[in-house]
Amino acid sequence: MQKPNRTLLTFIFSFLGVLAIYGTAKNIFKDDRIGIIAVLIVILSPRIFAQSFYNSKDIVFMAAFSIAIYTLIKLLETLNMTWAVLHGIASAFAVDIRIMGVLIFIVTIMTLIVMVVKKEMAVTTWFKLNLFYLLVTLVGVVAFFPFLWTDPVGNFLIAFGNMSKFRWGGSVLYIGSLYSATNLPWHYVPVWLFVTTPPLYSILAIVGVCKTTADLCGNKFTIWSGVEEKYYIILLIFFLAPIVAVILFSSVLYDGWRQLYFIYPAFVLLSTRGVVVVWYSIDKWKWKKNFFISILAFSFCYYGNWIMRAHPLQNVYFNLFVGSDWKNKFELDYWGLGNKEALQFILDRDSTPLISVRVDSATPLARSLLLFSTHVKNRFYLLNKSNHDFVPKYIFTNYRGISKIDEDKTVTYDILEDYQVFYQKKIDGEVINTLYRIKDDNLCSKITMSQREYTAKEFRHFRLNSGKILSEDDQLFVRVEIVNSGDMNFSALSIRGQPIRLSWRFLDKVGKPTTGWDPRKDLPFDIPANGELTMQIPIKHGTEIKGGTLQISIVQEGVFWGHDVGVEPLSIPWE
After folding, report:
1. How confident is the model over 80-113, as pLDDT tens digits?
2. N vs C: which end of the chain shows fewer Cβ within 10 Å?
């Protein structure tokens, strides 16, 4: 059976969410044209458009929220049991994607209570709707969420607690400063929302929010004076309540505001109301109407063109209020959408059999290699920044997680003296990621990739010698020499996934192993013929055995251990 394509499923669900936004706008404003405007706003929002193809968490939840808003509006419009069931299913599905979906449940119940108090429906109707909705929602939440099957209430509370205090202690770059994700300024979400949304949409949303707020205040204790106002108030709650909750509870956020994308359908519909409010306020002036239509048309065309020009990096959109030097102010391509293009740039210009690339930032470059054929993928040797033993030919960065703040509060990056810029991806003149190439190829660590397994006879040319024990930043290292007395060069890498590595363990005072041969250390480069390779292995604090012995062996991964074929392990008394 063929595995489902997650990208395709994400896009399909995103498309259903757009249809739900269209249906909601059409139902509220009673005009197909207004529904189309709502659709244009959402699909011509560059970041939302981009992530609709691959963000299987936040965008899918946003789509589920859009569908739940639509079924809620239909339920309130028809007071029909069928829609109560459909809305219950939509609510349960949203809750099971993200616990924040309980907001739909709360708003639905409160709206129905207010409606019966205002005598907009009979008590018997209210009772039936609530009964159907509650039963379907509760059963659906448990049925769609296997984690709840053993203990529905207890496990739900665990999931809710994890959501409210999400455990992620990293740092985020925000307006040129580094903040802990657990201690963000209160304005983090409003600012991120504003600078990553086309300005016209934000202005229209402000108009929609202000008009809805004014109507709500004018109605005083009646809350709403008409059916449409009821819908606008619901949208206002869906938009503002999560933002207020995040600020009050100091919720953990990162990668911008993507965890709150589910407020965007309400934002879009309030922007759409802004369009309607402006339109009717200039109803008497034809030239103003034409001017307003021109502004809308120009904006839609501009952002449609921007989306095409920025492909595949629409997710790094910032509006004009951010100014220049984006990479020093906000996180950019944390999804790694520009990685494939950078790798292809290397392939088109470098014919060497093995290409070493060090990743100097937080980006999924290894996953990007999965987009290439196996032959091409095997040409790349990827290293992380912590590999100090190896000098790569290329260094790649998207600037995420490598910035630091100097005393003058400016964001800086390490200067690569032996490297020069080889490739840069830019959007609107702003650098998104950079690929550096070493200036002198002779400075690169020499490394090759074996096409076969080595034999035991070949392996017996190895001998391990110990160097000194080093201490650096509260970390212990043991220097080890691998001496090769044979006439053959040994490759550090293997196309068959069987590289040569060092491994170690401790023996207690009587010579009994205290651990298995679990740690591994890759060779930083090839072991030369009739030569030696010196490398350092890290010793984790707490694993040492005072008065015991550190034992080091060499292994051809998945083939044999050196100590099984005649290569004596190195034994170092540990004082």
Report:
1. 999 999 999 999 999 999 989 999 999 999 999 9
2. N
